[in-house]
Structures are given as C-alpha cells and as structure tokens.
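Reviewer 2 asked us to include a model.

Predict the structure of this chain.
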Amino acid sequence: EEDQQKAVLAAMPESEREAIVTSLGYEEETAGRLMQREVMAAPAFWTVGHTIDHMRENGDDLPELFFDIYVIDPSHKPVGAVPVSVLMRTKRDLPLSQLMEPITEITVDQDQEEVAYVFEKYHLISAPVVDESGRLVGQVTVDDIVNIIQAENREDILALGGVSDIEGRDTGVYGMVKSRLPWLLINLLTAFASVYVINAYQAEIVKMVALAALMPVVASIGGNFGTQALTVSVRALSARELTAANATGTLWREIISGWLVGACVAFGLAAVVLIFWHDIRLAGVIAGAILINFTMAALAGTLIPMTASKFGVDPAGASPIFVTLVTDFCGFFSFLGLAAIIIL
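Predicted model (structure tokens):
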C-alpha cells in the first residue's frame, strides 16, 4: 500500500529502487508493471561469437531467465530476435542480422489481458516491451503470462458468481459484504419486474392453481439455458473468438440451438403435464412458453455480454443479473399470457 511504499523503497539498493519506482509509474495491470526490465539486446552487426562472449563476460547483468536475444538498431528499437537455441548451434562468425526472426512487440501501456491474448494467439515464449517512442525497455516471458491467465480466469469466474476478486480465505465479514451486496441490490430491483408480471396475472392464477405450480419451472429452465449461453459468450469474448465480424452468425447459432433444445424440453414437460393434469391445453401452453423463453434466453445470453463489452463494462460481472431478469420476466409473462389467452 502507498503508506508502506516509502519505507520499503528506502530499504532497497538504489538500482533496485529506481527500477521499482519506474515500474510504479505505469498503470496497474499493464505490460509496464508486468515486464522484466533486464533484457539481452545486441546490434545487428554483432556475430554469434561476439554475442556469446559478451553474455559470458556480463553474466551478472543478464536476466535470470530469457529465451531471446533482441536485435536493436542504433536508436535502441528492436528489429528482430534470435532465439538462444538458434544462437548456440550456429557458427561463431555469422552476424545476428542473418539469424534474426520477426518479433511481436508489446507496448508498455498494453493491458495484461491483451498481452496474454497476444501470447496465446502467436504462441510466444517471450516478447519485447517498447515505450511510446518504440525503444526497448523490457520483456515479458511466458512464465509471467501463465500467472496472468490464471488471475484473469479466476476474476471471470468470480464475476459470474457476482463476487469480486478481493474475496479470499482471509477476507473479513465487511469485505465479503461489500463485495456481494451491490450486485444483490441490483438483482433485487430487477426482480420486481417479475413480481409485476405475476401481480398482473393474479386473477388467472387464482382461477387455475396449476399455473402457480408450473410457472417457476418455465423461468428456472429458461434461466439455466440463459446461463449456458452467457458462459459460452463470456468465454468467447475473453478469447477474442466473438467479434463484430461473426456476431450475427454466433447469435443465430444460439437461437437455433435454443429452439432445438427448447423443443426437446417442451415435449418432455408437456408429457408430464398431460400425465398429472390431463389437460392438453395446459400442456400446449407450457410447451409454447418454453420455446419463447429459450429463444429470449439465447438472445440475452449473447447480446447482453456483447453490449457490456462494447461499452467497456466487464461482461462477466454485469451480464448474469440482466440475463436472469430477461428469462424470469419472459418466462412468467409468456406462460401466464398464453394461459390467459388459450385456457381462461
């Protein structure tokens, strides 16, 4: 914390203190905070032998773990990289310019989640980090990225459950309440939409008690399907698999799967209703309500996280409550509305 930083920095050696202060100058959860400042860099005209001799003579100044030698131009901008494995099996008189491979640069202000995506997309082991002017200032290695991927996945899982990443085994009661209460209050407000629908059809429910027994089933099953669609969408957004280019196709795929799954569930529920209530109209009503609610669940589970992501809101945290609102509202409204039209 800030009140402890001065004391900790004062106890550090000057070189380490300068490195830490520079790192703290970057935004949290960016490549600047994540990167290792120590890199092995060499000009393009150096030979393999020159590079190896330099590393042996200056071993104490080298990174503890590195996979590439970054080839730089006179302005200290990276122009390529030579893997250590390639360097060690090449003749000493060959210049680095003939060995270097293309690089994927990371900027200091790039979000760590975006950095993890770049590593996964291009199967990187390490990547150079450059500042605003394109100068080499550090590197990110795959062992750093593994920790980031785990942290981001944990954050998404907790967000889907409506809690924040601050909760842990040592979290106090106040911290747990602060983490969970805001989303539950929002959920309470959205729940009144379902209450409004039920209240609007209370006369129909009084006339046919079976409606009261069956309407939670429609909302619950629709909610489960909405959660499935939501989970797939959040994962696809996180992995950059769901984009504006394929959004329409993804949406139609979810809708069609909703119809097919809904048809199977509707048939099973209709059969159960016929067995217990012997009312073919009631069976038709619940089947129709299931199909409608599954369609809305597919739409909500896909469109809501996409919309949240477009406006810069975490789709994992914001979407579950609103998907539940849609499936509950549509489930009650479609079931009770169809019952009022067909049966009563």
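The longest strand covers residues 78-83. The mean pLDDT is 88. We have added this to the supplementary material.
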